[in-house]
Design a protein that fits this description.
single chain; mainly alpha; Rna Polymerase Sigma Factor, Chain: A; Arc Repressor Mutant, subunit A; 2 domains; disordered N terminus
Length: about 180
C-alpha cells in the first residue's frame, strides 16, 4: 500500500499530471508523501495546530486547481511549500482581520531536530513569541530555505525588507534565549 518516499522530480510530476486528470489515487499518494512537511510548515507559520490542519486541508483540496500553475521548473516540494506558505499567510491575515489570535501551543514542531529537547522547546517558545511578520520570514528563510527574493514575492515585500525582518528576528530570538 504505502510506497517509500517518491522520487522528487519524476514521480511527483507524474502524480500531479494524474491529479490534473482527476485521479483521487494520485492525490492520495501526493498527500501521503508531502502532508507532514506541509503541516509542519503551516504550524510553524501560524503557531496553531487547528490553523495548520486547516491549511493542510486547503492546500490538498485546491491542489488539482493549483496544478495548472506548476510547470515542472524546479522542485515539486518547493512549489508545494510556496502554496502552503501562501495559504498559511492568508489564514493569518484573516485571523488578524477578525482580531483573533491563536493560543500559543507548547510542543509545536521542533525547529531543530537534533538539538537537546529542552533547547528545542525553549527555541520553539521563543519563536512563537516573535511578532508574526518576523516569525514568518524566519521560518521561510532559516527553516524552509527560501531566498529573500522568494520570501519577498510571497509576502509582497522587498528582498531587503525580508533581510531586515530576518535580522530583527535573530536579535529578538537571541534576547529571548539568553533570559
Amino acid at each position: 500500500m504505502g510506497r517509500g518516499p517518491i522520487s522528487e522530480h519524476q514521480d511527483s510530476g507524474e502524480l500531479l499530471r494524474r491529479v490534473r486528470r482527476g485521479s483521487v489515487e494520485a492525490l492520495g499518494e501526493l498527500y501521503r508523501a508531502h502532508a507532514d512537511s506541509v503541516y509542519t510548515l503551516a504550524l510553524r507559520l501560524t503557531g496553531s495546530r487547528a490553523d495548520a490542519e486547516d491549511v493542510l486541508h486547503d492546500v490538498f483540496l485546491g491542489l488539482a486547481r493549483a496544478a495548472a500553475s506548476y510547470h515542472e521548473h524546479g522542485r515539486f516540494a518547493a512549489w508545494l511549500g510556496r502554496i502552503a506558505a501562501r495559504a498559511a499567510l492568508m489564514r493569518m491575515r484573516a485571523r488578524r482581520r477578525k482580531r483573533e489570535s491563536p493560543l500559543e501551543e507548547a510542543g509545536s514542531a521542533a525547529v531543530t531536530h537534533g538539538a537537546d529537547p529542552v533547547d528545542r522547546i525553549a527555541l520553539e517558545q521563543a519563536l512563537a513569541r516573535l511578532p508574526a511578520p518576523l516569525r514568518v520570514v524566519f521560518v521561510l528563510k532559516e527553516i524552509e530555505g527560501y531566498s529573500h527574493e522568494e520570501i519577498g514575492g510571497m509576502l509582497g515585500i522587498t528582498a531587503a525588507n525580508s533581510a531586515q525582518r530576518l535580522s530583527r528576528a535573530w536579535k529578538q530570538l537571541r534576547r529571548e534565549m539568553t533570559r
